[in-house]
């Protein structure tokens, strides 16, 4: 069958036309293949771009969290220091008040009673 077809085409002078058709098919196939390859490359590139974006976003988020953590630690540290400072001040004030009371007590006592170690009202 194929041989007869070729013979008839040769007879009619259509061999060149068949070759052109085959060439056209071949070129079409090649174009399709190149198009497919370009598409795949484009998709891979896009995918890599998305991955980079994602990593960048994650790094940014981590930095933000780290910054927040540091700030919280700093605030906590300052709060503790403030608490210690207030406690110390309270102790000092208490001591001062105690000293003041002692002085007042001493002034209230008369000289003689002080020498005897007694309060004013006792005999």
TrEMBL record:
<feature type="compositionally biased region" description="Basic and acidic residues">
    <location>
        <begin position="43"/>
        <end position="84"/>
    </location>
</feature>
<feature type="compositionally biased region" description="Basic and acidic residues">
    <location>
        <begin position="1"/>
        <end position="25"/>
    </location>
</feature>
<feature type="region of interest" description="Disordered">
    <location>
        <begin position="1"/>
        <end position="123"/>
    </location>
</feature>
<feature type="compositionally biased region" description="Basic residues">
    <location>
        <begin position="26"/>
        <end position="42"/>
    </location>
</feature>
<feature type="compositionally biased region" description="Basic residues">
    <location>
        <begin position="85"/>
        <end position="123"/>
    </location>
</feature>
<protein>
    <submittedName>
        <fullName>Uncharacterized protein</fullName>
    </submittedName>
</protein>
């Amino acid at each position: 069958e194929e041989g007869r077809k070729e013979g008839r085409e040769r007879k009619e002078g259509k061999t060149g036309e068949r070759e052109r058709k085959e060439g056209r098919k071949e070129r079409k196939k090649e174009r399709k293949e190149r198009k497919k390859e370009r598409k795949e490359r484009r998709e891979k590139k896009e995918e890599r771009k998305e991955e980079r974006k994602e990593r960048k976003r994650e790094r940014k988020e981590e930095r933000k969290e780290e910054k927040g953590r540091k700030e919280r630690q700093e605030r906590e540290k300052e709060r503790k220091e403030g608490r210690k400072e207030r406690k110390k001040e309270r102790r000092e004030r208490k001591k001062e008040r105690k000293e003041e009371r002692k002085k007042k007590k001493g002034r209230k006592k008369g000289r003689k009673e002080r020498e005897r170690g007694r309060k004013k009202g006792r005999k």
